[in-house]
Design goal:
The chain is 28% helix and 22% strand. It has 20 helices and 40 strands. Helix 3 crosses helix 4 (87-96), helix 14 (408-416) crosses helix 16 and helix 17 (458-483) crosses helix 18 (485-503). Residues 550-557, 838-847 and 853-910 have low confidence and may be disordered.
């Protein structure tokens, strides 16, 4: 007798690696927890347990307009049909959706004790009742219209939706929190009105950036209110999906008659209960950690759920106590934002714009599927109504066929055999374009057999005709929606506006400008164009280009700024908020401001004094003598500086990339010398320097080699006894239209074409620019002008005259000039300023510089910090002033001649 092998008829079992098996099993478990329990879906913002509770309540008929039912029955129905994980997980989830301090908009309307913000738990589920809230009804709307996919439940007896249609943007509005295996989600609640506005803005402009979205969504809006400190944490969370938000309790300080103070807290941080807060405050007082508090009382009631009163001892500073409370108690807390949600069944950390876009994509799918379902239903009904209308039109023939049939089956078959011609169909449907597609169908024959005699009346026939007409209109509308995605977005936009109108309410959480901890200020400021204005007296401000509204041709325009008496607008330019303004002082130092650090003010405001924005040495009387707006620190551009004693120095623009707040050295100055003018030059430019005694020299910028910041420079012009430099301009090598306007102390001056000044070697005595006679007086200042420019002349006595440059005739160099302003005895010209367009062009509606800047370039989404020329900023979109920035300071005492060596000890090439 043979014995069978133990493996006979069976395949050998391969060896099992326990490590691999554990890995696979754990991963399966982890993904099951992540997908099936802990994380919300990005489309409807619900976890499976929440979604199943809402669907079960819908199955029970607990609509927003109906009555409530015992929560025990709701929990039982949910557990029976969809969620077999026990009532200990279902009821707390149900209760949380009915708690106002946890949900920004309730998904469940509860009746009974569902807990309190004090920390009390809900009553047992046999005592409480609930129904769907109105916003939950919005989320479930159209569920029966084949808008989402369904899946079998746990025992395959029922089917449940994989996701809800989600007309209400629940994920952002109500937020979500949960801990899965190896990951967690923590999405803060937001204001419904702001979210709806942001979604509409994203529909209107799919390329909108984060700054644009934050113009609508200011930040989280917690149901318990509170104050969010600063925007940096919000912006970081919206940009990357992760961030930290500092949230403080809202408070008031009341001064009592007996010298004590009350700090009254009316709103507390999100998810903080009063019970735990009061316990912590009592511990701080009893332990002596905060010694200035005499009592902590809870004055909360139904009308004011949170009112915690902290009594400060007599003689104590309540602000000090307040800071201690924020430091040591949960009255100041940090909310960690982790915007993790399921996208196509996989967990992803999402930025704000991604969440909004994915929600809109979901709504597009829902509306498209709903429309397809409605189209199918309308076509089916229209097909049946067509058969009924045909039967009514030829009722005698239909009755004959039915009466002569032996049974309903034969009658159906004979009706289906009736031929319907185009002529019959057009008469029946009253449509000249109708075309027959064959005999009556089975559905049409069944509908005819089911007709009641009352449908043969004229009124019923008219109703069928009206129904058919309405069905054809609906079909056309559904087909148009499916053919044009823009119409789908129109429906979404209308839904969002309706939601905002019906359910939105004001913000509860404030966003303060107080930043706590380290933050990047520049990241908080959107890069956009600003108009910067500077007055002759040194007042500066910025304002958006939209301030200058478009006007019709021939209008009066609007004033660019309102100035103090005796002051006037001297400079106006367009720059991006992240651009730089370099300010140069008479002490040879340069100071640095970002455009966004310039105070923003209204059109009629005067602005703020520049000296109050910079760390000038006021004890030494340091003054700003020039400024320069800079967008990019490019390597092929230089700054040319000129001093009172005729020294010039050329330095690479990139050397000024990173000045300090207290200023850095722009050039070295000899004792008694001062910086009077700065200009930007590039290859091919010429520099023209003018002196007090009427001399002028023009030389190529290449005559002055580039030097470091601390160098003293080289001789630009040789000065005679008692002479000094009064100004400098930069001209390109082929300047034809521009001219040099020279103004003398006694009010005389002249305008000479720049082509009259031949180029010389740097360091010479130059040419005669104007005769400085007793009639003229010494030269005060110069400016590069064109016929279309206007200039402002001011006198030491306070007189001002505004003159059009075209009214001053062009004359030669070696002349005395003409009278520009009449000077009283003992008075003298103080300064000359070339004016920008103070009143905007009525034809264009905006200043030429603004228009040019906005037309040529757009601000980038995320500009890099100052660095290399190709990385620092976008290409210049706003024009930079090419004139020398000179405040027209008066003459100084005569200076000695420079030695024949420059600051680096090398011979001066003359």
């Amino acid at each position: 007798m043979s014995t069978a092998s133990p493996t006979e008829g069976h395949l050998p079992t391969p060896p099992l690696n326990i490590e691999d098996e554990l890995k696979e099993s754990y991963l399966n478990y982890a993904m099951s927890v992540i997908v099936s329990r802990a994380l919300p879906d990005v489309r409807d913002g619900l976890k499976p347990s929440q979604r199943r509770i809402l669907v079960a309540m819908r199955d029970l008929g607990l609509s927003p307009g109906g009555g409530t039912s015992k929560c025990a029955g709701i929990v039982g129905e949910t557990m029976k049909r969809y969620h077999p994980h026990g009532d200990n997980s279902i009821y707390p989830t149900l209760a949380r959706m009915a708690q106002w301090w946890n949900m920004r908009h309730l998904l469940i309307t509860g009746q009974g004790n569902f807990g309190s913000i004090h920390g009390l738990p809900p009553a047992a589920m046999r005592y409480t009742e609930a129904k769907l809230s109105p916003v939950a009804g919005e989320m479930l709307e159209d569920l029966q219209l084949d808008t989402v996919d369904f899946q079998p439940n746990y025992d395959e007896k029922y089917s449940e939706p994989r996701v809800l249609p989600g007309k209400f943007p629940n994920l952002l509005v109500n937020g979500s929190g949960g801990i899965a295996v190896g990951m967690a989600t923590s999405i803060p609640p937001h204001n419904l009105g702001e979210v709806c506005d942001a979604l509409v803005a994203l529909i209107d402009d799919p390329e909108i950036d984060l700054h644009g979205l934050m113009g609508y969504i200011r930040g989280p809006d917690f149901p318990t209110g509170g104050t969010i400190c600063g925007k940096f944490g919000i912006m970081e969370a919206y940009r990357s999906g992760r961030g930290r938000i500092t949230l403080r309790a809202k408070y008031e300080i009341d001064e009592l008659k007996d010298g004590r103070s009350h700090i009254v807290f009316t709103e507390i941080p999100y998810q903080l209960t009063k019970e735990s807060l009061l316990k912590k405050l009592a511990d701080l007082v009893n332990s002596g950690r905060i010694s200035g508090i005499s009592a902590v009382d809870d004055h909360s009631d139904r009308k004011q759920p949170v009112r915690v009163v902290v009594t400060v001892k007599r003689g104590e500073d309540p602000n000090v106590i307040l800071n201690q409370l924020f430091q040591y108690s949960p009255l100041q807390d940090t909310f960690s934002v982790i915007m993790l949600a399921l996208v196509d069944g996989r967990p992803r950390t999402l930025a704000l714009k991604e969440i909004l876009r994915l929600y809109l994509d979901h709504r597009v799918v829902v509306i498209r599927r709903r429309t397809q379902f409605q189209l199918r239903q309308a076509r089916q009904r229209a097909h049946v109504v067509e058969g009924l209308l045909i039967a009514l039109h030829y009722i005698d023939e239909v009755i004959r066929v039915i009466r002569s049939s032996a049974n309903p089956t034969e009658a159906r078959a004979r009706l289906m055999g009736l031929e319907v011609s185009d002529q019959i169909l057009r008469r029946a449907l009253d449509s000249p374009d109708a075309k027959a597609t064959g005999p009556l169908t089975r559905n049409q024959a069944d509908a005819i057999l089911a007709m009641r005699l009352q449908q043969l009346t004229g009124l019923e026939a008219d109703k069928l005709a009206e129904e058919y007409k309405k069905l054809r209109e609906d079909i056309a509308r559904y087909e148009a929606i499916l053919a044009d995605e823009h119409l789908i977005y129109d429906l979404i936009r209308a839904d969002l506006r309706e939601l905002k109108q019906k359910y939105a309410n004001p913000r509860r959480s404030e966003v303060s400008g107080e930043e706590l901890g380290d933050f990047d200020k520049e990241a908080l400021i959107r890069e956009e164009y600003m108009v910067v204005t500077i007055t002759n007296a040194g007042y500066i401000k910025r304002l958006p280009p939209s301030t200058y509204r478009a006007q019709g041709r021939g209008g009066r325009g609007i004033a660019a700024t309102s100035t103090r008496e005796g002051d006037f607008l001297e400079h106006m330019f367009v720059a991006l908020t992240h651009d730089y303004i370099l300010f140069f002082s008479d002490r040879g130092k340069v100071y640095w401001l970002k455009v966004y650090d310039v105070p923003e003010a209204g059109r009629t405001a005067a602005g703020r004094a520049i000296v109050n924005l910079l760390q000038l040495d006021n004890d030494e009387g340091e003054r700003i003598t020039g400024f320069l707006p800079v967008r990019r620190f490019v390597e092929d551009e230089y700054l040319m500086m000129c001093t009172r004693r005729g020294t010039v120095k050329k330095t690479e623009l990139t050397a000024f990339k990173r000045p300090l707040g207290r200023g850095i050295i722009a050039l070295g100055l000899d004792e008694g010398d001062e910086l009077i003018a700065v200009g930007r030059v590039k290859a091919g430019d010429h520099v023209l320097i003018s002196t007090k005694q009427g001399m002028a020299i023009r030389f190529d910028e290449s005559d002055a080699r580039a030097m470091g910041r601390t160098a003293h420079g080289v001789r630009g012009i040789s000065l005679g006894d008692g002479d000094e430099v009064v100004g400098m301009i930069v001209a390109n090598g082929q300047e034809d239209e521009a001219s040099l306007l020279t103004v003398c102390e006694r009010g005389y001056g002249k305008r000479t074409a720049l082509t009259e000044y031949r180029s010389q070697n740097r360091g010479g005595k130059g040419l005669i620019d104007i005769k400085t006679t007793d009639r003229n007086g010494p030269v005060v200042t110069i400016a590069k002008v064109t016929d279309d420019d206007e200039v402002m002349l001011t006198t030491a006595g306070g007189n001002i005259i505004r003159t059009r440059v075209g009214d001053v005739n062009l004359i030669g160099r070696n002349t005395q000039g003409v009278r520009l302003i009449r000077i009283d005895e003992g008075d003298s010209v103080g300064s000359l300023a070339k004016l920008p367009e103070e009143e905007l062009s009525a034809a264009d509606g905006v200043d030429d510089a603004v228009a040019e800047a906005l037309a040529e370039a757009e601000a980038p989404d995320s500009p890099e910090a100052v660095g290399d020329a190709d990385e620092a900023h976008p290409p210049a979109g706003a024009p930079r002033p090419d004139h020398i920035l000179n405040d027209g300071v008066g003459p100084a005492e005569a200076s000695d001649h420079l030695d024949d060596q420059d600051a680096d000890g090398e011979p001066d090439a003359e």
